[in-house]
Amino acid sequence: MFFEDFAVGQTYTSQGRTITETDVVLFAGWSWDTNPPHTDAESMKDSRFGGRIAHGMLGLSVAMGLASRLGIFEDSSIALLGVDDWRFHAPILIGDTVAVTVEITGVRRTSAGDAGILSRRFTLTNQDGVVVQSGDIGLMVRTRSGHGD
Prior knowledge:
By secondary structure, this protein is of the alpha+beta class. Helices cover 22% and strands 36% of the residues.
């Protein structure tokens, strides 16, 4: 899809993806975030969460990946413009299956007119419909003419 195909109010929902033990361990390894809520099963079993939880940034990363799998931004994406007002509403537990809904909340052409800006609201929910994370992620996209690179 290109800039001209988007309108305020459109929503797209991804497939689900289960967050695994391996996801959390690998994320801890490459991010160096080895805080106990993510890596210490013994200390977390009696915590408010009842066990280890996924990293907040792992949730954001998965939300971005799920949005990519929708296939609607792939041919027109130029640049990610920022992540704003991202909130962590509830923990993501190992074994949770999450999906993302992306709502188009704004569309405007750039001042040069050769690209467009999409304001997008991301809502990441778990298998029970609980919102676990949400926020706004702007994206610059190509116009149908293909200019704007």
